[in-house]
Design goal:
Blueprint lengths: L1 H18 L3 E7 L10 E4 L4 E4 L5 E4 L5 E8 L6 E7 L5 E5 L23 E6 H7 L5 H4 L6 E5 L8 E5 L7 E5 L2 E2 L20 E8 L13 E7 L7 E9 L3 E9 L7 E12 L8 E13 L3 E15 L5 E2 L18 E16 L4 E24 L8 E3 L2 E3 L1 E24 L5 E23 L10 E23 L2 E19 L8 E17 L4 E12 L3 H5 L11 E13 L3 E22 L5 E21 L4 E23 L6 E11 L6 E9 L5 E10 L2 E2 L9 E2 L2 E12 L6 E9 L10 E9 L6 E9 L6 E9 L1
């Protein structure tokens, strides 16, 4: 027994000795000396490795003694391989040379702001996205960025979601993917539900607040989000990412890539499925998507094809929860018909070229095509036959004007076109000029079908009770450039022309003929300057103009009024300072956004009873935004942002339906200097990160949004209350022998179980009542509650 015990002790001591071996070092750019944060350092054949941290350093522990090949790789750089012997009695200093293979950075160059662009922006890296990505839509992942308020119809971040930036909703936020427009050409909105798990195929994003450098697609009237999808990976890989959580939420994702084949070709693919029951009753989501990419990477040219698609089925939770039920039944959903669902699929095809034409010239061009089709189905109890252009039905001598009906409203559309840009950089690097543009066409068919009726009528299944088509051509050309006038002083200019032709033909869903056409020609100039000091500070200021055409609904509902809706105009001033130091960084900026003819809901009705938007002559948004991060110690860091603003309409007229008299009419009430709807005066977040040991991070994420009004009257009875929420995040990564990386993430949302509603809507009207006026004002508020304490947990395995 003593011999066995002695042998066991010797064996344990040898294990301890083995565990003591480690290697450490730094990885930098061989020319600039800049640390290459995120570079991969791997001991080939062992499954052991590390990622270069924010200080440019890495460490690999618990290495058995022996000889190894150390491989260091980073996008845009040549892979380095060194033979080493462990134990190693030195700290490695590894330098990578820039790759001779042309990279994909220029694909988004024409739409991006750089360090010398005088605008307000924030870059979001892939690793930052991955920390939060457990299957929720992109608006929820951006919740902690400056001036953002996110919300979800189903209350749990899966399904229909949206966001506002500086109070501007999704229809006023320009979104591009690889420089290609994503906003719907007619509504100007972005329906993230049609792109489930898209964040898993995103390499980086840039959010520009204000007009920014927007060029392609819908006009920026509040912000822009520029997305670049996954870029080339030099090493072959496989990845399985699964998450689960509250409300029976499940996300299953599989990714694979070939790495660089023959130093020229690379292919990647992703397949995802997300399901959730939702927080709101019956608000389920069944979402499927894929992303496939392949490219040729030459010394000076890249040709790449992206194909991605999303298919969604969601149970409708659009109506919200009535105020009367909010305290007793927060998950209420008025719909009970089992197939009250939204069904849509959208396929995207992108052919992208980018390359160096000469030492001074680069070029980028892309062709794109998007095919979307789908419907939402509704059970309509006791609906009027006249709403479907049907005569009353005679049964047994009785004339039936109403009955239960099931209908489907369809959208079948094609969106296609091309974008391009040429970039010139002078030999002395003082001039950086981009000439670009694009031309796109949208062709959409809107129609409605009756698929069931309570009593048989002279109607065939799939008969269309309305049908109309719309064609929209959108073209633009721009010239932008930066010139370094003196050392550190950069002058910026951007001139854009945008032309639009929009025509309709057919019958709308309210049975009116909406045939007609409109055209617009917009000139959007931008000017500014940036001054960079030798101490790491950067000052900037800019003036920019954006013009925006009305959305589809503004045109189709316009016959009610004496004039057609007018285009909106925005004049935007931005000024600020950016500071980057070794332990801290911060941005501070002020902005003023002056709107002319902003379109808002007023309560006014058209000739068939639909509520329409009207132009208000003068309105503005003004505020100050602060964001930054501070490294308190090697284990603790603090980051956050704060936006304080005023958002006002000079004069606004509300129209209230009056049912108190024998004859219906609308009463007009005029307000002055009121808050713009859904524009909180204070939005902030704070994130505390604690890393008690290597590869483990514990984070507290706090979000505050002040109260906001649901219309433009500043009526205290039509308001969303302020809220403060706190989330808890745990990330732990390891590199066991059998896989390249194993990562566990846990998100506990709303840990203090705060009951809050970031979105809603309201309407008011008069009914007969007692008193001198003989009427009473009724206000109905509807809310979209978010879930209380809930969680999502995920496990990602990379091979």
């Amino acid at each position: 027994m003593k011999k066995y015990g002695l042998s066991l002790a010797i064996l344990l001591m040898s294990f301890v000795a083995v565990a003591q071996n480690s290697i450490s070092g730094s990885v930098k750019d061989s020319q600039t000396g800049e640390p290459l944060v995120g570079a991969n350092v791997v001991l080939e054949g062992t499954g052991r490795g590390a990622t270069v941290d924010l200080s440019g350093k890495f460490e690999i522990r618990n290495i058995p003694s022996g000889s190894y090949v150390l491989r260091v790789s980073f996008l845009g750089y040549e892979t380095l391989k060194n033979s080493i012997k462990v134990p190693l009695n030195e700290v490695l200093e590894l330098n990578l040379d820039q790759s001779s293979i042309f990279t994909e950075e220029f694909i988004v160059y024409g739409t991006r702001a750089t360090d010398v662009t005088p605008t307000t922006f924030q870059n979001i890296k892939k690793e930052d996205i991955a920390k939060l990505n457990l299957g929720q839509d992109i608006p929820m992942l951006l919740n902690y960025t400056p001036s953002v308020v996110s919300f979800s119809d189903a209350g749990a971040g899966v399904g229909y979601t949206g966001l506002r930036i500086r109070g501007s909703d999704q229809t006023r936020i320009n979104v591009t993917v690889n420089g290609i427009p994503l906003n719907d050409a007619e509504s100007h909105g972005v329906f993230w539900v049609n792109m489930p798990d898209f964040a898993s195929s995103v390499d980086n994003m840039q959010i520009q607040r204000g007009v920014g450098t927007s060029t392609n697609g819908a006009a920026t009237f509040g912000a822009s989000i520029n997305i670049q999808t996954d870029t080339r990976q030099d090493e072959a890989y496989g990845e399985v990412d699964n998450s689960f959580g509250s409300f029976n939420t499940r996300r299953h994702t599989v990714k694979a890539g070939t790495g660089l084949i023959n130093d020229r070709w690379a292919f990647d693919a992703r397949l995802s499925q997300i399901t959730s029951d939702g927080y709101i009753d019956r608000a389920f989501s069944d979402l499927r998507s894929y992303f496939v990419s392949g490219g040729y990477y030459g010394d000076k040219h890249v040709v790449k094809v992206n194909i991605f698609s999303g298919a969604e089925q969601t149970y409708q939770a659009w109506e919200g929860v009535p105020e009367a039920l909010l305290a007793t039944n927060r998950t209420f959903n008025r719909y009970t018909y089992d197939n009250q669902t939204d069904n849509y699929q959208q396929d995207h095809y992108q052919l992208i070229y980018t390359g160096a034409l000469s030492p001074n010239w680069k070029a980028n061009a892309a062709l794109h095509y998007t095919y979307g089709r789908g419907y939402y189905e509704q059970f309509r109890p006791n609906d009027r036959l006249e709403n479907y252009n049907l005569p009353n039905l005679l049964i047994g001598g009785e004339s039936i004007a109403r009955m239960d009906i099931i209908r489907r409203r369809w959208l079948d559309n094609d969106f296609y076109g091309g974008v391009f840009s040429f970039n010139y950089i002078s030999d002395d690097a003082k001039w950086d000029v981009v000439l670009g543009g694009g031309a796109n066409r949208y062709d959409g068919d809107h129609f409605g079908e009756l698929i069931w009726m309570q009593f048989a009528n002279d109607v065939n299944i799939r008969d269309r009770y309305y049908d109309n088509v719309a064609v929209k051509d959108d073209r633009n050309v721009y010239l932008k450039g930066t010139y370094e006038a003196i050392e550190g002083l950069f002058l910026f200019g951007d001139l854009q022309y945008r032309g639009i032709d929009y025509r309709f033909d057919g019958i709308n869903n309210d049975l009116r003929d909406i045939s007609g056409q409109v055209s617009y020609n917009f000139f959007n100039p931008k000017f500014g300057l940036t001054y960079q000091t030798s101490t790491g500070k950067s000052w900037y200021a800019s003036y920019a103009v954006a013009n925006r055409e009305p959305v589809r609904r503004d045109f189709t509902d316009s016959p009610i009024v004496d004039r057609a809706p007018q285009a909106e105009n925005l004049q935007n001033i931005e000024a600020g300072i950016k500071v980057n130091k070794s332990r801290y960084a911060y941005n501070a900026n002020i902005y003023y956004m002056n709107y002319n003819n902003q379109l808002v809901l007023t309560g006014q009705l058209n000739d068939v009873g639909a509520y329409v938007r009207d132009n208000v002559a003068d309105s503005y948004r003004a505020g100050i935004e602060l964001d930054g991060a501070y490294q308190l110690s090697s284990k603790i860091s603090l980051g956050g942002n704060l936006a304080i603003s005023r958002n006002k309409i000079a004069e606004f007229t509300e129209y209230l339906d009056d049912y108190s008299a024998a004859v219906f009419f609308q009463e007009e009430i005029t307000y002055t200097n009121t808050d713009i709807a859904f524009s909180p005066n204070v939005v902030g977040s704070a994130i505390l990160d604690y890393r008690p040991f290597k590869n483990f991070e514990l984070s507290l994420l706090n979000k505050y949004v002040s109260s906001q009004y649901m219309d433009n009257t500043m009526n205290e009875n039509r308001k969303l209350d302020a809220f403060w929420t706190t989330d808890l995040r745990l990330n732990y990564a390891m590199r066991p022998r059998f896989v390249n990386n194993l990562e566990f993430t846990l998100m506990v949302y709303n840990i203090f179980n705060k009951l809050y509603e970031p979105n809603g809507y309201t309407f008011s009207y008069f009914l007969p009542g007692e008193g001198e006026t003989g009427r009473q004002l009724i206000t109905e508020n509807f809310y979209y509650p978010m879930a209380g304490t809930n969680f999502l947990a995920g496990l990602k395995v990379r091979f």
